[in-house]
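Blinded run. Sample ID left blank on purpose so nobody reads anything into the name before looking at the predicted structure. Input follows.
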Amino acid sequence: MKNKQVCERNAVQKKPKAPTDTDREMGLLLRHRRKQVGLTQADVGAVLHVSMQQVQKYERGQDRISAANLYKVAQLLGVSVTYFFDEDELPAASTCQEHVRLNLVEAYLRIKNREQRKALLELIQSLSDT
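Blinded prediction complete.
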């Protein structure tokens, strides 16, 4: 009986393994493909029955995606599960940089206050000169 209690206690105390480089690459591919097909994080979350924040964690490689959820995501995005493991599928760095630039410009344009936009632009310019 004592051994059973020790085993149960050890099972409860086990921590999940930390995400790996592969998890981060899978997250990058998830985000890239999701944007390609025009889905939001909320759309993906609805299919997986998880929050938008959880999808963000998957995309950032902060949390691992279970095999079952990976299968669902692949179906949703119209790709094979192997898409997430094929190094040829990784988006080029330039593609990722384009997404960053586009997101930055879109965020900047959403600022309604003209003075705030001007101040932000000046701040960015001053930081880029350092």
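Unblinding after everyone has recorded impressions. Residues 43 and 52 are 8 Å apart (CA to CA).
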